[in-house]
Every structure is written in structure tokens, then in C-alpha cells.
């Protein structure tokens, strides 16, 4: 029995990785923005709020690589600082959302019965409210701060993570090895930790990447509406909002933050679309 369990755990731990050139490009861009989010403020050529040019909406030059904003501040510096808010808040929110949603989904699928029905209907009711509308109501009522943004985004997207994880866990819960574990008298924490979660981790990681993209876009939308990261700080959505009047001029100050948002979200999609993770069947 012990050898059988050990062999099944070893089989479960073997992952198949495949990645092509498109996935490598996506990975490179994601790693680049992660590096910028961590070390960007150290690399910034100017203080983030310092007015360094008397020409507002200045063009790109050898001195100002990405031009200047509506006050004459260096846009490269602003984008480097903004990456920490966009990437950091989105990553914290998606980690919290997936932890809550996936855990609740696995518990509901494993327990079943009235508990699963009540919890699923409650999540469905919350998920019926449009994400942007719900986030606007919460942030407007509570106030905009980084903890509030993280908790709001996590609460909104935990509903989708719950439904996704529950659908996967329901299928795994009917497998023979789970029935054997129940017959041995294993309790709920063991079933979730050792039997359910290891067999859904691949799709869950892909869903994690997609929800990260959704959260980046929703956070940028909130900041564009003035309810996201508040001045003097700014994420990329806030930078677009600050400099929107330069759009008619084709100013880099409004184009570059938009390109940063697009490059991050597209590269994450490229990565998760071309990095499928396969977990071997427990019967192998």
C-alpha cells in the first residue's frame, strides 16, 4: 500500500512542459515587466514628481526617451514607477482571488450536498453583478486605497475562480483513487491537498494567468475613471487619464502607458496559450 501511494505521488508530480517561440516571447515580456516592477524605481532617471521639462507633452528625445507628460515630468520615470502599482496590485489581487475561489470550489465539490448548493447559488448571485459596476460601487463607498483595491478585485474575481475550480474538482472527485481514499477514512483536508488539487493544478494555473489579465484591465479602467490608484501615485491607467488631453497631439505621454498595458496583457495571454501543463493520470 505504501509503495503504491509513493508511486502514484511520483507519477502525479511529473509535468509535461511544451513551449514554442511565441510562448518564449510572451515569457520574455512578462519577465521584463516583473523586473521593472521590482527594480524600476532604482532605474528611474529622475524623481517621479519632478518637473524636468518646460515643454509639456514633449516628444521623445535623447534626454527624455518616452517624452514628458502634461506637467513636463519624465514619462519613462512615471512608467517605471507605475509598473509597481499595476503589476503589484494585480498580482496580489489575483493570488488572493485564486486562493479563495479555488479553495472554496474544491471544498464545495468534495463536500457536496446542501453545502455545495447553497455556496454555489450565493456565488452565482454575486457573480451576476457586472464587474466594473460592482467595483465602482465598492470603491466609491469605501474609498480608494491600495488595500481596498486589492480586496475589491480579489472578491470580484474569486467568483469565477470558484466556479472554474469547482467544475474541475467535481470531475476529479468521482475518480476511483478519491473513492479509495475515502474508503481508507481520509478526511477533507487530505482529499483536497493530496487528491483533488494536484490533479487540477494545470488548468488552475492557466486560469490564474487569464484572471491576472482581467484584473490588470479592470484596475486600469478604475484608474482611468479616477477611482484607482490616487495621486501623487499613479498606475498605467492613471497615467493615461492624466495625459488624455494629449491624445489629439499623438503625445507619447498617453500612448506609452497604453502600450505598456497592452504589452503586459497580450504577453501573458501568449505565455499561457503556449505553455500547456499536463499532469499525468493517476493510473499511470
Describe, in plain words, how this protein is organized in 3D:
The protein is an all-alpha fold. The protein has a single domain, classed as Orthogonal Bundle (MetI-like fold), CATH 1.10.3720.10. Helix content is 69%, strand content 2%. The chain contains eleven helices and two strands. Strands 1-2 form a two-stranded antiparallel ribbon. Helix 3 packs antiparallel against helix 4 and helix 10 packs antiparallel against helix 11. It is elongated. The N terminus and C terminus are likely disordered.
- Beta percentage is under 5%
Instruction: Write out the strand line-up for the largest beta sheet, numbering strands in chain order.
Output: 1-2
CATH architecture: Orthogonal Bundle
What gyration radius follows from the Cα positions, in whole Å? 23 Å
What structural class do helix, strand and pairing data support? Answer: mainly alpha
What is the share of helical residues? 55-70%
Shape: elongated
Number of domains: 1
Amino acid at each position: 500500500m505504501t509503495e503504491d501511494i509513493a508511486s502514484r505521488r511520483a507519477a502525479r508530480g511529473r509535468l509535461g512542459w511544451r513551449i514554442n517561440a511565441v510562448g518564449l516571447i510572451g515569457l520574455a515580456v512578462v519577465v521584463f515587466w516583473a523586473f521593472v516592477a521590482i527594480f524600476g524605481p532604482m532605474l528611474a532617471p529622475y524623481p517621479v514628481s519632478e518637473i524636468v521639462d518646460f515643454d509639456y507633452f514633449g516628444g521623445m528625445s535623447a534626454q527624455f526617451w518616452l517624452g514628458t507628460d502634461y506637467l513636463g515630468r519624465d514619462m519613462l520615470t512615471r512608467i517605471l514607477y507605475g509598473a509597481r502599482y499595476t503589476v503589484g496590485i494585480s498580482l496580489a489581487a489575483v493570488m488572493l482571488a485564486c486562493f479563495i475561489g479555488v479553495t472554496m470550489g474544491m471544498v464545495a465539490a468534495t463536500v457536496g450536498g446542501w453545502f455545495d448548493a447553497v455556496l454555489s447559488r450565493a456565488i452565482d448571485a454575486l457573480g451576476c453583478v457586472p464587474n466594473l459596476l460592482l467595483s465602482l460601487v465598492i470603491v466609491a463607498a469605501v474609498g480608494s486605497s491600495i488595500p481596498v483595491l486589492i480586496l475589491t478585485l480579489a472578491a470580484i474575481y474569486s467568483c469565477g475562480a470558484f466556479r472554474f475550480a469547482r467544475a474541475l474538482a467535481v470531475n476529479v472527485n468521482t475518480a476511483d483513487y478519491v473513492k479509495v481514499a475515502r474508503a481508507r477514512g481520509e478526511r477533507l483536508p487530505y482529499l483536497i491537498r493530496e487528491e483533488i488539487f494536484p490533479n487540477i493544478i494545470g488548468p488552475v494555473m492557466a486560469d490564474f494567468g487569464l484572471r491576472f489579465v482581467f484584473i490588470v484591465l479592470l484596475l486600469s479602467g478604475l484608474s482611468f475613471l479616477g477611482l484607482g490608484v490616487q495621486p501623487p501615485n499613479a498606475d498605467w491607467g492613471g497615467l493615461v487619464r492624466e495625459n488624455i488631453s494629449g491624445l489629439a497631439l499623438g503625445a507619447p505621454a498617453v500612448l506609452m502607458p497604453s502600450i505598456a498595458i497592452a504589452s503586459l496583457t497580450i504577453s501573458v495571454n501568449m505565455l499561457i496559450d503556449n505553455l500547456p501543463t499536463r499532469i499525468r493520470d493517476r493510473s499511470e
